[in-house]
Amino acid sequence: TKALVELLSEAILLNCAPTSKVNSTEAGLVYEGNATECALIKLTQQLKVDGESLRQSFKKPNSVLDWGEHSIPFSSEKKRMSWIVEKGDGFRMYSKGAPKAMFGSSTSFLSGLSGSVTETKPLTPAELKAFNEQIESYQNSGLRSLAVAFRDFDSVPKDGWNNNKDLETNMTLLAVFGIEDPLRPSVPGAIEDCRKAGIDVRMCTGDALSTAISIGKGCGILRSTDFDKDGNPKEGFAMTGAEFDDRVHLKDDKAPHVVRRVFDPEINDAVDKLAPQFLLDEKGNKKLDMEAFDKLWPTLRVLARCQPEDKLTLVKGMRKSQLFMDETRCRSLDKEHNIKIFPDYQVVAVTGDGTNDAPALKSADVGFAMGIVGTETAKQACDIILLDDNFSSIVKAAMWGRNVFDSISKFLQFQLTVNVVAITLAVVGAFAYSESPLTAVQMLWVNMIMDSLASLALATELPTKELLDRMPYGRRRPVISKVMQANIIGHSLYQIGVLLWVLFAPQTIPFLDPPITHDPTQGSVHWSVFFNVFVLLQLFNEFNSRRLPTIEKLRSTASEWNVFNGVCSNPVFVAVMVSTFLAQIFIVQYGGLAVNLVHGGLTRDQWLFCVVVGMFGLVWQLIINFLIVRLMKSSSEEETNSIEQSIRKMSTRSLGDVKDDTSIDDAESHREKSLPQANWDKFRAGVRQGNIYKDMMGGSSFRSGHKLGSIVKTRLDDQKEAKKKIEVSEKLFSSEKSLKQD
Question: What integer best gives the mean pLDDT of the chain?
Answer without folding.
Answer: 82
